[in-house]
Design brief:
The chain is α/β, with parallel strands linked by helices. The protein contains ten helices and twelve strands.
């Protein structure tokens, strides 16, 4: 029997992939955009869940402008913190499972080796702090939930680093990209599959879900240009040479344990995911 799955933030890059994945599995998917359901409004969230009675809620709604969050901290905490809390409390009332998507930016990047799910967080920026607030609020609500941390997302239907590099490469033919920040690029299609399989497992908890392997933004850009067949004059630079409003962790690689022990697999290498994404993009 098909389950009713509610996807919030469904018009976004990850929301689209999650909607498609559960749809492929024959589930009854209800997709709500930010305009259709404001997760910062508890009364609206409670009313929607009481009316729709989903078995699973996947929260893809988020304030993702990392630099913008520095100047709009209240908005970031409303969407990334209070919103997930509202969903968690409403899910508990209707006995629905909540999947909340979080980020590698809850870590400060000082560890120098992959972060485990229980390593102590220490976010460097407002965005990371707001996402951590949301994680803790979801756990505190006490319902059945998954907290899924991921990183460096790219996929169809949204702004992302791959699209930015393609635009720069075709428009300017030259780019400077930071070479001292290391993380795990992750394709939304692969993340959506893992989210669905985690839900299927019923083994609630915190998980790190990224494509396998790690890279720097500079190396990621080089791979994008190579696979896209673009000749771009690419130059590395340090984080210090490319100042941004929000500080970024220099090392935010996530250790996937116990993902394989739960779903039976790890996500494919990021380079394979990138090649697949670019190939599908051209169709």
């Amino acid at each position: 029997m098909a389950r009713r799955v509610l996807v919030t933030g469904a018009a976004g890059m990850l929301g689209r992939a999650v909607t498609a994945e559960f749809g492929r599995r024959g589930e009854e998917v209800l997709s709500l955009s930010r305009q259709e359901l404001d997760i910062t409004d508890f009364a609206a969230v409670r009313s929607a869940l009481r009316q729709l009675r989903p078995r699973v809620v996947v929260n893809c709604a988020a304030y993702t402008d990392v630099d913008g969050a520095e100047a709009s901290s209240e908005r970031a905490f409303l969407v990334n913190g209070l919103g997930p809390r509202n969903l968690a409390l409403a899910c508990r009332e209707v006995d629905a499972v909540l999947v909340h998507v979080s980020t590698d930016y809850i870590f400060d990047g000082q560890k120098g080796e992959p972060y485990g799910v229980y390593d102590p967080p220490n976010p460097l920026n407002v965005y990371g702090k707001s996402k951590l607030w949301g994680e803790r609020a979801v756990a505190e609500a006490g319902g059945s939930c998954f907290i899924v941390r991921t990183s460096w997302l790219f996929g169809h239907g949204g702004r992302n680093f791959v699209e930015t590099m393609l635009q720069i490469g075709r428009g300017k033919g030259a780019a400077r990209v930071v070479s001292d920040q290391r993380g795990c690029p992750t394709c939304t299609v692969d993340l959506a599959r893992a989210i669905a399989d985690l839900v299927e497992s019923g083994r609630y908890g915190t998980y790190h879900v990224t494509n396998s392997g790690s890279t720097t933004w500079y190396e990621f850009a080089a791979a994008i240009f190579k696979l896209a067949g673009l000749e771009v004059e690419l130059a590395p630079c340090s984080t210090a040479e490319f100042p941004r409003p929000a500080r970024r962790p220099l090392y935010s690689v996530l250790d996937p344990f116990p993902l394989k022990e739960t779903t039976g697999y790890l996500l494919p290498p990021w380079a394979d995911a990138l090649e697949r994404y670019l190939s599908e993009r051209q169709k």
